[in-house]
Amino acid sequence: MRIKLPFTLFHKIIEGLCFLVFLGSLIYLAVNWRFIPDSVPTHFNAAGAADAWGGKNSLIILIAVDAMLYVVMTVASLFPAAWNVPVRITPENSLRVLPLIKDMLSLTKLYILVMFGYLIVAASRAMPLGTWFLPLVLVLLLGTNVVYIILARRAAKGL
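Above: the chain's sequence. Below: its structure in token form.
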């Protein structure tokens, strides 16, 4: 079943922000590369403190993973028929449920790109993430998914 979802103003804004955040991360690395210390954090513990170190080239891997996630999540958002949705999609409910899932995916992509951008800045400056980082990431990602799954279940029932 071929499904074409509208590209709303909300999606245009989120996609624009995603692109700017990714581009900003890339430009930040390029402009500051010569100032980045030779040894940077490559892992942070749950409290946000660096607990493993490596060469600054590891930041290239981080931006490459960021780019891959950006591309894969963007392409995936174009194929709603391939999404694993937590409710049964029918012709009657698809136009109520799938836009909600598209919103969820768009917000999730934005959160991930912001998280990677912050990781790149923190690692390049050899600074801790902060104790707030992990709880905030979990609340944003899990909270958004829970809210949108509840909304999708309601939409599937026609509520």
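The chain is about 60% helix and 10% strand.
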